[in-house]
Write a structure and sequence with these properties.
By secondary structure, this protein is mostly beta strands. The chain has seven domains: 96 residues, Immunoglobulin-like, CATH 2.60.40; 121 residues, Jelly Rolls; 64 residues, no CATH class; 118 residues, Sandwich (Jelly Rolls), CATH 2.60.120; 108 residues; 101 residues, Immunoglobulin-like, CATH 2.60.40; 111 residues, Immunoglobulin-like (Sandwich). It is 1% helix and 47% strand. A seven-stranded antiparallel sheet has the order 35-38-37-36-41-34-42, with no helix packed on it. Strands 10-12-19-14-17-16 form a six-stranded mixed sheet, with no helix packed on it.
Length: 806
């Protein structure tokens, strides 16, 4: 998200808003603060009835309707109550965050009615008010009778709650170390399933299940899934009698936000399926394993839609009146499909394949005490570009894949040489494999767009802060760090060496400089954003020759459920995008912004043009393009001065269009999300309007230019207005700002700030936006009209240096 640098001090972190926020300065009017929801209680209900829920949120007054993501679900707001709130003043010398107003804290009572045939699972809703629609909130729709654990958590010696299964057991681990205990009658031979639903509903619980027999002895389940925060367990009852199931937090924590829904009983449950996917347009049988499936051993899948770069379809299995209690998704591909053929455990036994192909296989059945490894033999012409993808973890397989392309003799193939030019180290704190911020001891020899070698990971600098006590930002996508040339993001401890790197051909020669030299081969462990533990490689054949593809589990593990889909195909360009926020509230006579960000990209793509579909009368969208080499853009949505305030929220869609190899690619935003729907609402006129004196500015690489912004306050609002600049191109940033950034204070109506272009900034004409922020616990953003920034092209030597990896 190209916001460059905030032009004001950051707002209070969400976790400490209530402790240190104050009202606006004396004489200032409360700003327009959009509504928001923080929680729903209970977290779900059984379908086929009506239940009352309590919503905690802010500025919910005059809520007119509740908007759901599925048919068969409706609700009525019955009561809204203000919640008194004590706001503590800041402590001198301790609370240094910005003082911002809070929306009115409230609770709403709503009656939700769910039809008997409504789809079970996790659903989402928003609440509409005159100030706009809220953020989305999740809740569960269940199929089983519900049993609520009342009162305090029973301790180990307490009498358990007797229940009749099947049922959904509902409770909260309210105290650290506490647990809820339920007793049920076990029937010999019955296969009982226990599956927790908590984390997707916003619970902090990291669940742990313990099943005990009538003698209090812990029994060993026949199957257990402990991956993630929510766990599942299957046990075949060995003898008649009472059993207990207890649930607690595995870290012995607790609190009111440690709630759960535990489906329990002889329920249909899918433990595995194979193959993990099918080819589009064909009816295929998928073998399924599990318990209580009514003897079903197969499911018929017939996906009709043509897949994009990543498509799945639900695998629904019904047993009697119940469908499988867990949701399973099957991949849909477009390539010809084959099965892995054993033996293919060595390079000499490699299975011959033709491209394109999707191979459905397992990592299982290793020989001689060694875990299974699979080899495949293929031919590629010199310069041929291949896309090699593994789909396993994304489809529920426990496989953590690693792949590599070898020559015909089984030797690694050189990909690039990384020459280190100078060294610094990480400091302050360890960083996980997701973070895009890394604190460095020194950045004096670094520039934006430089490559960095951090451990075995190749990163690229995105932004270097002006002050020492701030992180250097590296390139990311979809809020995840991106690694280059097949390397994978990893955890980095404090004092890890970091090298400025130069990327050279694999056979390059150069004088030694006392720093390490890294030799990269065609190998990948984790594929990056959107792939999780699955692997991917974009392989370019160095010669017209035969090659081997080697696949295994990176941990050396195997099993009958370690299934995978391995796809090899000629590399075709593709991309995915997301658009945020999901509920743009557009002020009448004003504007708001939606950021459209690339979530995945493959191959050579031109600019991505972004259009908005479904805009209602009175709302317009600015033209927007994600330039080649950038990863985001800003779409400004504006509402006419006479736009109807009572108009129903309109479903809108952001669509990206790009050309590659003579064909047009069209991709809808949020297509991979569980809640792709975006709703646009018209709200009252804005508190501030921001503009710039100039409509366009020019800047040369290595030079500065000043911009003056102007603020108009409305609705009696008199507060300060922090701003930032959105949609800046690479190499252009805001400079010479202090701790408070460029801040328009309560007594000001304008402010001048400075843009600086690095020596290597590329020539481009690009609209940028000065965005005014009205501070609150739910701040509103008000963008200016586009300011056309012209980066002039008189630094070709610097650009050439950048292209060579600096």
């Amino acid at each position: 998200m190209k916001f460059n640098l905030p032009l004001a001090a950051p707002l209070i972190a969400p976790g400490i808003v209530l402790a240190c926020a104050l009202a606006l300065p004396l004489g200032a009017e409360e700003p327009i603060i959009p509504p928001s929801v923080a929680s729903i209680s209970p977290a779900g209900m059984e379908r086929g009835g009506t239940a009352t829920f309590t919503i905690e949120g802010r500025n919910l007054s005059d809520a007119s309707e509740v908007l759901f993501d599925a048919s068969g679900i409706s609700a009525k707001v019955t009561k809204i109550v203000d919640v008194p709130e004590k706001i503590a003043p800041p402590r001198a010398g301790q609370d240094l965050s910005a003082q911002v107003p809070l929306g009115k804290k409230q609770t709403a009572s709503i009656d939700i009615t769910i039809a008997k045939d409504a789809p079970p699972g996790i659903h989402r809703f928003r609440i509409r008010t005159p100030l706009g629609t809220t953020n989305t909130m999740t809740f569960a729709v269940g199929m089983l009778p519900e049993v609520k654990m009342s009162g305090k958590n029973p301790m180990d010696s307490a009498k358990p709650r007797t229940v009749e299964l099947p049922a959904t057991l509902i409770g909260t681990i309210t105290a650290p170390g506490a647990r809820d205990i339920y007793q049920f009658e076990g029937k010999a031979g019955e296969e009982v399933v226990f599956t927790v639903l908590a984390a997707p509903l916003g619970s902090e619980l990291k669940s742990k299940l313990i099943l005990s027999d009538s003698g209090g002895r812990t029994v060993i389940p026949m199957a257990r899934n402990d991956r993630g925060a929510d766990v599942a367990m299957i046990y075949k009852i060995s003898h008649e009698g009472p059993y207990t199931i207890s649930i607690t937090d595995r870290d012995r924590e607790g609190g009111m936000n440690y709630f759960y829904r535990l489906d329990a009983g002889p329920l249909p449950y899918i433990t595995g399926f194979f193959p993990l996917g099918v080819r589009a347009g064909r009816s295929e049988q998928v073998a399924i394993t599990g318990v209580n499936l009514g003897g079903a051993g197969y499911a018929q899948i017939a996906p009709r839609e043509a897949p994009g770069s990543w498509t799945t379809t639900p695998l629904i299995v019904n047993s009697g009146r119940l469908r499988a209690i867990n949701e399973v998704k099957v991949a849909v591909g477009s390539e010809p499909e084959i099965l892995e053929a054993e033996p293919n455990d060595t390079a000499a036994e490699a299975q011959a394949i033709s491209i394109p192909v999707t191979i459905n296989g397992h990592i299982d059945g290793g020989k001689g005490g060694h875990p299974d490894e699979d080899y495949f033999h293929f031919h590629a012409g010199k310069g041929q570009k291949l896309s090699i993808d593994v789909a396993a973890a994304r489809l529920g397989s426990p496989l953590d894949s690693v792949i590599e392309v070898l020559d015909a003799k089984g030797n690694p193939i050189p990909r690039a040489t990384v020459r280190c030019l100078n060294q610094t180290t990480t400091t302050l704190s360890d960083r996980d494999s997701r973070a895009t911020g890394i604190r460095l001891v020194s950045t004096s020899e670094l520039s934006e767009e430089d490559y960095l070698m951090v451990g075995d990971e190749l990163d690229r600098v995105d932004y270097i802060p002006d002050q020492p006590d701030a992180d250097t930002m590296v390139k990311g996508m979809d809020d995840l760090r991106v690694a280059y040339l097949g390397t994978s993001p990893d955890v980095h401890a404090v004092n890890t060496p970091v090298y400025k790197a130069q990327i050279l051909p694999p056979d390059s020669e150069f004088p030694a400089n006392g720093l390490p030299v890294f030799h990269l081969t065609w190998r990948n462990d984790d594929g990056g954003p959107g792939y999780g533990a699955d692997s991917k490689l974009d392989f370019v054949a160095p010669a017209d020759a035969d090659y081997l593809l080697h696949l295994k589990d990176v941990r050396g593990m195997e099993g009958s459920d370690f299934a995978y889909r391995l796809t090899l195909a000629d590399a075709e360009s593709d991309f995915g995008i997301k658009a945020l926020p999901a509920n743009p509230n557009i002020p009448r006579g004003g504007s708001t912004m939606v950021t459209v960000t690339v979530t995945s990209m493959r191959g050579d793509l031109g600019p991505i043009q972004v259009d908005v579909k479904g805009l209602p009368p009175g709302i317009t969208a600015s033209p927007a393009t994600i330039p080649q080499g950038q990863d985001s853009t800003v779409v400004v949505l504006s509402a006419a001065a006479d736009a109807p305030l009572d108009a129903h929220p309109a479903p809108i869609e952001f669509v990206g269009r790009a050309k590659a190899n003579g064909r047009e690619l069209v991709r809808a935003a949020n297509a991979e999300s569980d809640h792709p729907l975006q709703l646009a609402s018209i709200i009252p006129p804005p508190d501030v309007v921001v503009s710039t004196e100039a409509r366009q500015v020019a800047i040369e690489p290595g030079k500065d230019v000043t911009v003056t912004l102007q603020i108009e306050r409305h609705n009696g609002f008199k507060g300060r207005v922090p701003c930032f600049v959105a949609n800046l191109p690479p190499g252009v940033r805001v400079v010479n700002v202090g701790l408070n950034g460029v801040l328009v204070t309560e007594v000001q109506t304008s402010r001048t700030f400075t843009l600086h272009a690095e020596d290597w900034a590329r020539p481009i004409n690009q609209p940028i936006y000065v965005v005014a922020s009205v501070e609150s616990d739910s701040p509103t953003m008000h963008p200016s009209a586009p300011l056309l920034l012209n980066v002039e092209g008189n630094k070709q030597t610097a650009i050439a240096n950048q292209d060579q990896g600096r």
